[in-house]
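Milestone 3.1: sequence recovery, worked example.
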């Protein structure tokens, strides 16, 4: 009887992990589809340079995407915790709203920066009535700024989004306690966290900008690998 129960438990966990991988790929596919639609319309309005800002903004959705990875978590006993996707779907609406608002705030700022420093006579500058003196073309600086910001977005997403949720599942200390533990972990592993942020940011920006179909492979693989590493590092700490 015990063997049957254990076998059933292993099968259930295996099924949950398969669903988790499938949802990560589906989320990657959704981001990819949205990115291609945005890129097409930006090209129609001669705003191709703005595309990198949208790519950087997609990184803000990482905490939302990482929620479906929780069936992969290993607890302190070295076992997978029971995970119910019903609880995820019950709360995912609120998370979506928060993430979407963050994305809109960033895009509003990105439009202003583009109109001020890249193309003062662009369609966006006219629509939003942005008045400025000619500053010259700062496209290169705009790209560098977005690359750096994408890395910061990735780092921020892990520290205030991914890690607190991960800690809440493994060692719930309350909302404040989870955030404190997250910042303490970041302080103890700053170099490692910066590296993880660079890996995720690169898997989004470099692929969507220069090898778009690789995004469907590199982004989910990078996110899953980083998530598992954070799980292991937290348990070791």
């Amino acid at each position: 009887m015990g063997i049957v129960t254990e076998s059933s438990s292993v099968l259930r966990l295996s099924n949950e992990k398969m669903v988790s991988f499938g949802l990560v790929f589906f989320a990657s596919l959704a981001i990819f589809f949205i990115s291609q639609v945005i890129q097409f319309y930006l090209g129609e309005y001669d705003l191709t340079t703005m595309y990198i800002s949208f790519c950087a903004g997609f990184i803000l959705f990482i905490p939302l995407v990482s929620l479906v990875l929780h069936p992969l978590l290993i607890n302190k006993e070295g076992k997978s915790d029971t995970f119910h996707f019903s609880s995820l779907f019950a709360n995912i609406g609120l998370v979506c709203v928060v993430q979407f608002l963050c994305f809109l705030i960033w895009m509003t700022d990105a439009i202003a920066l583009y109109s001020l420093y890249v193309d003062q006579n662009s369609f966006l500058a006219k629509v939003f009535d942005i008045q400025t003196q000619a500053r010259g073309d700062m496209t290169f600086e705009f790209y560098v700024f977005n690359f750096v910001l994408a890395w910061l977005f990735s780092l921020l997403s892990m520290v205030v989004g991914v890690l607190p949720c991960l800690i809440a599942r493994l060692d719930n200390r309350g909302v404040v306690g989870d955030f404190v533990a997250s910042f303490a972990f970041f302080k103890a592993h700053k170099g490692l966290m910066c590296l993880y942020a660079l890996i995720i940011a690169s898997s989004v920006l470099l692929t969507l900008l220069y090898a778009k179909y690789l995004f469907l492979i590199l982004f989910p693989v990078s996110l899953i690998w980083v998530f598992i590493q954070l799980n292991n590092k937290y348990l070791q700490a």
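The chain has one domain: 2-236. DSSP finds nine helices and no strands in the chain.
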